[in-house]
Amino acid sequence: MVVTGTDYRAQVLEHLPEMPLENLLVEPVARDTAPAVLYAALRIAQEDPQAIMGVFPADHRVTDAEAFDRLIERTISVAQKTERLITVGVTPTFAATGYGYIQQGAVLSAGLLPAYEVTRFTEKPDQTTAQQFLDTGLYTWNSGMFVWRVETILNAFKKYQPVMFKQLSEAIGRRGQAKLREVFPQIEKISIDYAILEKSDRVAVIPAEFGWDDLGDWNALERLLKSQGENVAVGRHVGLDTEGAILYTTNGDDLIATIGLDDVVVVRAEDVTLVVRKDRTQDIKKVVQRLKAHPELERFA
């Protein structure tokens, strides 16, 4: 089952032609991950109320498939035996400031891949705090991947997001897209982390290493394409005294020229040019929000 927005429906069908159409859930408008998860959970529950549900973002990269398979088998096993909301934790390899962190508590289930009680979520700490987390050995990155019994997550929505649960369950119960298009814009825009996981005392984490990377950030391009050169460039680039730069153009005929720049991201896409320090890429969303706030600039967002 895939949950996506109207803008990406055709692309999903192109890449997954074998997927039954009834397994493609299209959100009328984007409302972050909590409504998307609830939408899918309600549809799954209609087919199998006892199902185990996994949540996997589309913009992640996994290089160790065997380790990932073992991890998912383990999360399913724990989810089947408990009423816990299982988060997939990634063992951190550096003090990242662009990821959320999960603090591990008491051991809930021992074994080769232990499950721990979650004591705290921290969203994108500063560099000093991230290094402190790394040094303790008690924190994992929050991958944004989850496994749980569909009954468990629905009960959590009933408890912590009763309005959202009522809105979506009534809309989906009618089996019509018209009601869904009417209701979805009214739903609060909120992530599953803030809506459910940070409120619940029934969350567990299973840390693991499986060659994970989050491709939702421009810095990921450097990790994927870094060579022996000083910069990473997709498209034409000429640089003078430029080091540690990420340069990207969507038009093969365009040229990006840089002079005296270090550790920056430069993106040229049609009629928009973005220049940002690599340590500030998380703030791109703020710029997009500003563009959307001005009608004359909204088309650039």
Automatic annotation (TrEMBL):
Key words of the record: Isomerase, Nucleotidyltransferase, Transferase
Residues covered by the MannoseP isomerase/GMP-like beta-helix domain: 235-291
Highest rank taxon of the organism: Bacteria
Pfam families recorded: ManC_GMP_beta-helix, NTP_transferase
InterPro entries for the chain: GMPP_N, ManC/GMP-like_b-helix, Mannose-6P_isomerase_type2, NTP_transferase_dom, Nucleotide-diphossugar_trans
Record carries keyword Chaperone: no
UniProt xrefs under Gene3D superfamilies: Spore Coat Polysaccharide Biosynthesis Protein SpsA, Chain A (3.90.550.10)
Gene Ontology biological process terms in this record: GDP-mannose biosynthetic process
MF (Gene Ontology): isomerase activity; mannose-1-phosphate guanylyltransferase (GTP) activity
Residue span, Nucleotidyl transferase domain: 2-223
UniProt keyword Zinc present: no
Protein name: Mannose-1-phosphate guanylyltransferase (GDP) /mannose-6-phosphate isomerase, type 2
Annotated source species: Deinococcus reticulitermitis
Organismal lineage: Bacteria, Thermotogati, Deinococcota, Deinococci, Deinococcales
